[in-house]
From TrEMBL, chain B:
Topological type in the membrane: Multi-pass membrane protein
Endoplasmic reticulum keyword on record: yes
Principal localisation: endoplasmic reticulum
Name of the protein this chain belongs to: ER lumen protein-retaining receptor
Organism expressing this protein natively: Glycine max
Length: 10, 215
């Protein structure tokens, strides 16, 4: 679930 | 990280390098909107608040620092460098950019993923980035002539947006839970703003002539 909200784009 | 995302980040980086090259080599910022550059500086500072709270990768952190530092450096040059500031097209750069900041922040208060300071500033930065190019496009339209480096700067910025859309399509098709409505919808709006510019850019490229925008 945490992975979905991680903002990995710039 | 897919190839479209990497291409997007690299064209974004390239656009900033082209702009820095123009300012450094010609000691001039003519044709460049300081208002757009100030909006980008606000965009990066507001979006990368997570620099201190979330570590994603060395690449991610490095790029964030580069984007914040370069955007602040460009604004600094345009405001304070004794030679560069003289070439600033003040009378052409009259877009009311504070309206964009206010409207983006108001929208972020209404539409966000979570009601936290960081998430609201993130949404605000996404909305503001979508419209930050407007003062620049208005300035170009008013001056009519576009020098090569300024044209390339905007071309690479537009290419960065186009690659990000391909990246989202790729992620949507390959990742099971990829839904990022705020970023994707804003990104499409942002890219659409470049359509007109791209049209004239390709015409000038095809005819091998100088880029000119209709008044």
């Amino acid at each position: 679930v945490k992975n979905q909200v991680v903002k990995d784009e710039l | 990280m897919n190839i479209f995302r990497l291409a997007g980040d690299m064209t974004h980086l390239l656009s900033i390098l082209v702009l820095l090259l123009k300012i450094y080599a010609t000691k001039s910022c003519s044709g460049i909107s300081r208002k757009t550059q100030e909006l980008y500086a606000i965009v990066f500072v507001a979006r990368y608040l997570d620099l201190f709270t979330d570590f994603i990768s060395v690449y991610n952190t490095f790029m964030k620092v580069v984007f914040i530092a370069s955007s602040l450096a460009i604004v600094w040059c345009m405001r304070f460098h004794p030679m560069v500031r003289r070439s600033y097209d003040r009378e052409l750069d009259t877009f009311r950019h504070y309206f964009l900041v206010g409207a983006s922040f108001a929208l972020a208060l209404i539409l966000h993923e979570k009601f936290t300071v960081q998430e609201i500033f993130w949404a605000f930065s996404i909305y503001l980035e979508a419209v930050a190019i407007l003062p620049q496009l208005v300035l170009l339209q008013r001056s009519g002539n576009v020098d090569n480096l300024t044209g390339q700067y905007i071309f690479f910025l537009g290419a960065y947006r186009a690659f990000y859309i391909l990246n989202w399509i790729y992620r949507y098709l390959t990742e099971p839970h990829f839904t990022r409505w705020i970023a994707c919808v804003s990104g499409v709006v942002q890219t659409a703003l470049y359509a007109d510019f791209f049209y004239y850019y390709f015409i000038s490229w095809k005819n091998n002539s100088k880029l000119k925008l209709p008044a």
